[in-house]
């Protein structure tokens, strides 16, 4: 029997690799002969670089740059086979680096990402992948464009990984949809959207590119739009990572799949890891089970693609206690053991 385990990180609690290993430990404690294969996985947000390094190898390159508030820092990106650079936006401009407020949303810039793009080009990269999740910026990607303004990236394949399809401006644009969580007031967001609308018109006139017709240009505070202007394209974060890691080839030979994320609800079906994994399972008629920290009553499309879903919680605990790494890992280990006992009995 072969079980594939690919669980996204439980944000603020445990990494994908840690959760996968805990599930594997639980399964093997009950059934030592089961073949358990794990995949560190992400959907284009935090953890994407780690997932790709785990599956593909490569070296971390350390670069001197500035963060989203223009404070000096050093940041790393992954360089694989001397050709593919994987940059994680949150490494430089992550929202975790600030306490979002009215001042930060107006000052935060993607400028610091430019140093990583330029370094990758200097080293001969022929492809750059940017995971855009977890950004704390809302500058329309203008900082990045300014940082690389004098450079030609036309010979480099650039791909932005996003888990949203929002366009650049308007009611579904980066300012009005994501700006509030980044510290914006109604007045600030209205001003940012006016700036975004003006930029859309300028680019449409000067370059004949309509950012409003390209899904994902509003991702990461408009960073998606900047990548389009650098000649790049936008893809589903999970889809690209799964393709690079060749997960599908392993899943089609599996008997059971275990996936999951910290909080699963109806939005999970909008490009998140558990939905992508379950869809691959569905394609090859392999049942998928999801383990989560918090499980909503409304799972939407997830109810159709999953065999079952479980919360790992074993008793009532304060949130802070439940999210402690050692608690989460022990809970998911025990859950895996019990679920596999039931599964094997049923078989």
Name the descriptors:
347 residues, alpha/beta, six-stranded mixed sheet, five-stranded parallel sheet, 11 strands, transferase, glycerate kinase activity, Glycerate kinase, Glycerate_kinase_RE-like, kinase
* Cα gyration radius (Å): 21 Å
Main sheet properties: 6 strands, mixed
Tally the helices: what do you get?
15
Please bin the fraction of helical residues.
40-55%
Oligomer: single chain
Which outline best applies? globular
Estimate what percentage of residues fall within beta strands: 15-25%
Q: What is the end-to-end distance?
A: 11 Å
- Uncertain stretches: none
Which secondary-structure class do the elements indicate?
Answer: alpha/beta
Task: Give the averaged pLDDT, no decimals.
Answer: 95
**Numbering strands along the chain, what is their spatial order in the largest sheet?**
3-4-5-6-7-8
Per DSSP E runs of 2 or more residues, the count of β-strands stands at 11
N-to-C SSE string, H for helix and E for strand: EHEHEEEHHHEHEHHHEHHEHEHEHH
InterPro entries: Glyc_kinase_flavodox-like_fold, Glycerate_kinase, Glycerate_kinase_RE-like, Glycerate_kinase_sf
GO biological process, one term: organic acid phosphorylation
Family: Belongs to the glycerate kinase type-1 family.
GO molecular function: glycerate kinase activity
């Amino acid at each position: 029997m072969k079980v594939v385990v690919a669980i996204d990180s439980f944000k603020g609690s445990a990494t994908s690799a840690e959760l996968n290993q805990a599930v594997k430990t639980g399964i093997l404690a009950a059934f030592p002969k089961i073949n358990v294969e794990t995949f560190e996985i992400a959907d284009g947000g935090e953890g994407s670089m780690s997932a790709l390094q785990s599956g593909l190898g490569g070296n971390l390159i350390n670069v001197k740059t500035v963060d989203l508030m223009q404070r000096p820092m050093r940041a790393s990106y992954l360089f694989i086979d001397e050709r593919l650079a994987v940059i994680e936006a949150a490494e430089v401009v992550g929202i975790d680096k600030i306490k979002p407020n009215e001042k930060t949303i107006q000052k935060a810039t993607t400028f610091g990402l430019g140093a990583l793009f330029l370094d990758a080009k200097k080293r001969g990269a022929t492809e750059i992948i940017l995971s855009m999740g977890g950004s704390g910026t809302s500058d329309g990607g203008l900082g990045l464009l300014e940082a690389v303004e004098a450079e030609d990236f036309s010979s480099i394949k650039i791909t932005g990984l996003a888990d949203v399809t929002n366009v650049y401006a308007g009611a579904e644009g980066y300012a009005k949809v994501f700006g509030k969580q980044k510290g914006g007031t109604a007045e600030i967001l209205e001003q940012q959207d006016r700036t975004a609308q003006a930029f859309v018109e300028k680019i449409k006139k000067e370059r004949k590119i309509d950012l409003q017709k390209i899904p994902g240009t509003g991702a990461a505070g408009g960073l998606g739009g900047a990548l389009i202007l650098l000649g790049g394209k936008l893809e589903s974060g999970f889809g690209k990572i799964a393709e690079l890691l060749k997960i599908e080839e392993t899943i089609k030979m599996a008997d059971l799949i275990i996936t999951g994320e910290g909080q699963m609800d109806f939005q999970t079906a909008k490009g998140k890891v558990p939905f992508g994994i379950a869809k691959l399972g569905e394609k090859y008629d392999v049942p998928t089970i999801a383990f989560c920290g918090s499980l909503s009553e409304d799972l939407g499309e997830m109810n159709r693609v999953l065999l079952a879903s479980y919360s790992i919680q074993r008793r009532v605990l304060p949130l802070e206690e439940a999210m402690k790494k050692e608690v989460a890992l022990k809970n998911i280990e025990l859950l895996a053991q019990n679920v596999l006992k039931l599964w094997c009995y049923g078989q």
